[in-house]
Amino acid sequence: MSPFTHCWPWVCCLLILSGCAAKLPPTVAVSGPELEVVRQRLHRFLDQSCVTSIDSDVRLEWHAYGRQETYPATLMAASPAALRFALVDPLGRPMLLLVIKDNTFMLADNRKGAGYTGKIDSEFIRRYLSDGVAGDTLFYWLSGRIQPLGMQVLSARRAEEGKLFWYELDYGDRLIHLIALDRHDLRRHLVLDQGDRIIFDVHYSEYSSTPQECGWPGKIEVAGEALAADFTLEYTRLYSFTPLKEQLFQLQLPPHFTVHKVQ
Predict the structure, then answer these.
(1) Of 173, 139, 167, which Cα lies nearest the Cα of 249?
(2) Is 30 helix (H, G, I), strand (E, B) or coil?
(3) What are 124-165's pLDDT values in tens digits?
(4) What does the longest C-alpha to C-alpha distance in the chain come to?
(5) Cis peptide leading into 80, omega within 30 of 0?
(6) What is the pLDDT of residues 175-190, one digit of tens each?
């Protein structure tokens, strides 16, 4: 049963509230027949069957301290929390290789002969991932989906212009998640703290079809006050959505590497 079913009476009571209007494009309350459209849209989005792995080439644009850099990379990921991400040089050789499995990570810096290991909730990683991104939700963020488990819907509104519906969600983590849905896909996902500060803001666009019902975003733009940099991840080539071997998410650092265990 969808989480929306349990929360729908509360949504009806809260539709007239504006929530975090100052942080969003202008929105208006919904009423009458449109209430059912709001409910059905989220139901349909949550109930879609989706792919659970990706093998791809990507382009990473990095914006920080007045500088912009662009890197080609490869990305493999599997639901719910497995990632293999490699920045490559013009010859296709990996410069940085990051592997995440569940709540741990390992990073190999081939330029410095150094390795880093630790937990995904470490300060080292949190410079680039918001507190709202738990290890077991990583694939949801990469694929333009949301974690349905533990979700409570607090309110819903419609964009004043366009056809997006906005939903205010609570996962019990002292953060507020705001998502914007069009007829089929997630277009924006924000994470706000208790002071209404946007700590993570993700825009999704350029969706393409997959073997399943849901599409895959071709471009993900990420910004936020709590991040060390803003970045854009663009999928330049999608090779496969078939299941990936477990060994791909295991990394053994070379013996000559200096290994740092980070907190």
Answers:
(1) 139
(2) coil
(3) 777 666 666 776 788 999 999 999 988 999 989 989 888 899
(4) 67
(5) yes
(6) 899 999 998 999 999 9
| Phi, psi for residue 260 in degrees, rounded to 5 | -115, 125
Q: Which are the contacts of 244, defined by CB distance < 8 A and separation ≥ 6? A: 53, 55, 76, 78, 82
Give me 183's structure tokens. 């007829």
Sort strands 53-64 and 176-181 into parallel, antiparallel or unpaired.
unpaired
- Lookup result for tokens 């990683």: 125
* Residues forming a β-bridge with 178: 168, 190
Neighbouring CB atoms inside 10 A of 145's CB total 23
Whole-prediction pTM value? Answer: 0.85
Q: How many CB atoms lie within 10 A of CB 147?
A: 17
Amino acid making up residue 26: P
Query: Do residues 117 and 105 touch, judged by C-beta distance below 8 A?
Result: yes
Q: How far apart are CA 213 and CA 46, in angstroms?
A: 11
Q: What separation in angstroms does the CA of 230 have from each of 14, 161, 201?
A: 33, 27, 10
